[in-house]
Design brief:
The strands form 3 sheets. The chain has a 4-stranded mixed β-sheet, covered by helices on one side. A two-stranded antiparallel ribbon has the order 1-8. It is globular and about 50 Å long. Helix content is 38%, strand content 18%. The chain folds into 2 domains: 81 residues, no CATH class; 126 residues, no CATH class. Helix 1 crosses helix 8, helix 2 packs across helix 6 and helix 7 packs across helix 8. It is of the alpha/beta class. It has 8 helices and 8 strands, in the order αββαβααββααββαβα.
Length: 208
């Protein structure tokens, strides 16, 4: 990927560059799915975390589980989740906005004092379109979306996944960005757009 292509993945609507990766081990918990799907979702998270050469853990000492993934049918169901309004500021307003906009997924990140990701809340409304997507594909897409602070438009034109012999797999270029982003020599968080140049250099080094 070119530096400009990488830059676009982390450039917000206002034109600012914002990059963050996880600064602590990831502890996932999944709500609203059956046991078989639960294993599929956690397996996808484990695969992406392994690609990033990051870590998972059994518990987060500060908040227990720091990656919460919710599957549901109606946005208003979130208002009935105990204590969720204490974890998500403006939950009621968020639900109304997403429901009115017809959204089927949304993510809320929390960051530590250094800017690294410390928590992610992923919401997936199983509308007609998503209900037709295989569980493994849906799980892998969610795992990719939570591993970095991608811009909202990062995958608007093209999914981070591709089909290989009928199976959804991570696109090699996206995999390269994730792997490079977790290189220990790079910062866990930055708003300096030259960071895209450094990512491109790391990707080239890995590929070389």
């Amino acid at each position: 990927m070119t530096p400009d292509a990488i830059k676009s993945l982390f450039t917000r609507a206002d034109g600012s560059y914002f990059f963050a990766r996880w600064g602590r081990p990831i502890v996932p918990v999944v709500f609203g799915v059956e046991a078989a799907t639960l294993a599929t979702v956690k397996g996808a998270v484990e695969a992406i975390v392994a690609l990033a050469n990051h870590k998972m853990a059994e518990t987060d000492p500060e908040i227990g589980a720091n990656l919460m993934i919710f599957f549901f049918r109606d946005w208003h169901e979130l208002l009935d989740v105990p204590n969720l309004d204490q974890m998500i500021d403006g939950l009621a307003e968020m639900v109304v906005r997403l429901d009115d906009g017809g959204a089927n997924q949304y993510r809320v990140f929390r960051f530590d004092e250094g800017g690294a990701i410390k928590a992610c809340f992923a919401f997936v409304r199983m509308d007609t379109a998503l209900s037709e997507v295989p569980a493994a594909t849906l799980a892998l897409n969610q795992a990719v979306q939570m591993i970095l602070s991608w811009a909202g438009s990062a995958f608007a034109d093209a999914s981070p996944l591709a089909m290989a012999q009928g199976v959804a797999v991570l696109r090699p270029d996206v995999a390269g960005v994730i792997r490079a982003a977790y290189d220990p020599v790079l910062p866990t968080a930055t708003q300096d757009e030259t960071h895209a140049l450094r990512l491109a250099a790391r990707i080239a080094r890995f590929e070389g």
